[in-house]
């Protein structure tokens, strides 16, 4: 696939003797929702960290839009449109929900080295932020202090922040983690709506959600990709069933 | 507590209306503007000198609060900037240059350059290490000042006269000097408030709360912090310039680490990151020292335990006690 | 500089080094295990000196004076821990700085009230007051050698304590991961108290030992405190070994720097410029050292954590 939006080429990372990702190669074309599954400790989150730039790889290349980003810091990758969400909710708890999102808008629109003018009253920032919140269904929560939102709302806010960055590729690290049944369903609906707008790499334990959403699925076991393909093919893959689903 | 907050109308939690936010500073500046009236009863010179010190330290504390409160940069070396501003004024005056604008610009430039150079290194570290490395740079500045034999060494340097404005000695009058200092405090306060609310300030506050989150949305906190540190240092440098001009004297004692500690006390006592609190804290500390030392030369025996009690029982500082807000 | 002079300065540097170690050892453990910034640690050193002087004036016995200093400093440390510090664990570093700064103000001033601002002296024990000939042309005071010996002795003792006892094991574990130690069911509160007591005692010991050669005055702990902080930051917070190495390093760099900075500068600068810049360079040398170490190794030379 020549026009892959994100290309991983033998990405490797070890902690001491433990290889958390072992020569992972993967192509994600534009427009795809690619799910990454695997048992706990398979290296999924480590891989997300390496893609977003919070963890340096030992070897291998990460190419985004044809440009190598392997050595770039997290903020530089975010600016290029490689945007992540966090597994453990990571928001600014004392800012309002709107401000959390408006900061993301601010990050990509104009200089932030402006010392005058009330940022909280910049209509352009607030309008775009409201749009992102509305997309997630959080519009009426905009003026709440983020720390006081419910768990599910915080997960949604996390998504809204990522969306407001105008990402080309979203790395979603277990967006459903800790969400109740109703909240999960709402999030699946939101992600389904997002699919048409942005390429997504989804790490998720909720298999119902994964098989409902993914165009393709990769299975990571002990740091290596053991299978990549359409959901049905992966579901039927004997190696996957043996290693991951625990079947003989 | 969280549930309670969640049921309250959000606007009250988020940002009190602007009118509310202006009450405290309006009261503060009115009180400071009227303070010289106390001098009409007598001892005007003393009253003016005392309140000028309040205002000058309020400027320095505001500068520190910008870095410490809003940026989360706990500098334990801010006295160095006061000294640098003071020595800029002292050394130039000793060389026969006493134009206020020249002195001011040199004082700001010198403290700004020192802040950029030391900040560039210090900001590579975090937490306790940042506290300690700023302390180290402060000590370096202190010892360098001590070794300036040509400018009095550890005895310090007496200024022949206050700075002149277009060749006229407008600042020689203590009342004019007081109101000039107060006007500068107002200017710094308005500027600091604007910075905190600006795009720049929003990134700075965000990075204090959650650095990783800020990086994930594309911000590199480092340049924001460095610029903040420079602004903060220059503000303290301005205070040092005024302090040297007021007392017509500058010495290494301006830059001891205890003085840096005093500045932290002012910011903490007033209430971190509230700007108003920095002014309240500075005025409170200067006046309390003066008042207590009037009772006994051993006033620290009272002031020390007072600090401990504030830490143990009044976590939001004085402003927090007044308004019921707490930091934590 | 002649060999003899260099030898003398090296010994002086070692003496400052072991002194710094005695103070830094407690500081680094309190810092590393409890994540607690104790600015009041330098006050323990001052109190040690004053306890020693007071006890000597009553008993005229040097050994007794040192023992009283140890016990007194330890008791004050325990008292401070029980009344104040205990409430500040886990709080913001800023709160700890402010509260312990308050303790410095109070204790320095209290001592000034009781003893006055003037400096006191502790007479040197007769048996240790002579000099000893280390090499031809080099006489060195016996007492200063005793200080060096005592400091190294304490360092060895601490090393054995930290590496070979249960408490030492807990201290090491605590410095690298306090929550884990707590999770193992250890009474972390008691461990903290013990560490505090030992740290205070060591600082008090340092104060008592230097009382015969330094001026005993109210603010004597302040500048040493800052030096001790430099030491633990260079050595790596929480590491006793790091504190030892860094203390000797700081002691030597500072002492040798002061005695030779002007000489060295004279080789590149004019004589008068060197005389001007020498003292400035000498007194800032250790801070330059610290900034450089932090720049290249942000966690210090021997980081205790991960």
Q: How would you describe what is shown here?
A:
- The complex is a heterotrimer of chains A (248), B (328) and C (306).
- Chain A has 248 residues and is an alpha/beta fold.
- Chain A has 9 helices and 10 strands.
- Chain A has 2 domains: 148 residues, 3-Layer(aba) Sandwich (Rossmann fold); 76 residues, no CATH class.
- In chain A, helix 3 crosses helix 4 and helix 3 runs parallel beside helix 5.
- The model of chain A has no long low-confidence stretch (mean pLDDT 88).
- Chain B has 328 residues and is an all-alpha fold.
- Chain B contains 15 helices and 2 strands.
- Chain B has a two-stranded antiparallel sheet.
- In chain B, helix 4 packs across helix 13, helix 5 packs across helix 11 and helix 12 packs across helix 13.
- The two termini of chain B are 14 Å apart.
- Chain C is mainly alpha-helical and 306 residues long.
- Chain C has one domain: Orthogonal Bundle (ABC transporter involved in vitamin B12 uptake, BtuC), CATH 1.10.3470.
- Chains in contact: A-B, B-C.
- Chains A and B meet through helix 2 and helix 3 of A and helix 1, helix 2, helix 8, helix 9 and helix 10 of B.
Summarize the structure.
The complex is a heterotrimer of chains A (248), B (328) and C (306). Chain A is of the alpha/beta class and 248 residues long. Chain A is built from nine helices and ten strands.
Q: Tell me the number of helical segments of chain B per DSSP (H or I, 4 or more residues long).
A: 15
Shape of chain C: globular
Poorly predicted runs of 5 or more residues of chain B: 1-16
CATH class of chain C: Mainly Alpha
Biggest interface and residues each: B-C, 46 and 45 residues
Strands ordered across the widest β-sheet of chain B: 1-2
- Find the count of extended strands of chain B (DSSP E, 2+ residues): 2
CATH architecture of chain C: Orthogonal Bundle
| Estimated structural class of chain C | mainly alpha
Overall outline of chain B: globular
Please give the order of strands in the largest beta sheet of chain C: 1-2
User: Kindly state the mean pLDDT of chain C as a whole number?
Assistant: 88
What proportion of the residues of chain C form beta strands (DSSP E)?
A: under 5%
Q: Which class of secondary structure composition applies to the elements of chain B?
A: mainly alpha
Work out the number of β strands of chain C. Answer: 2
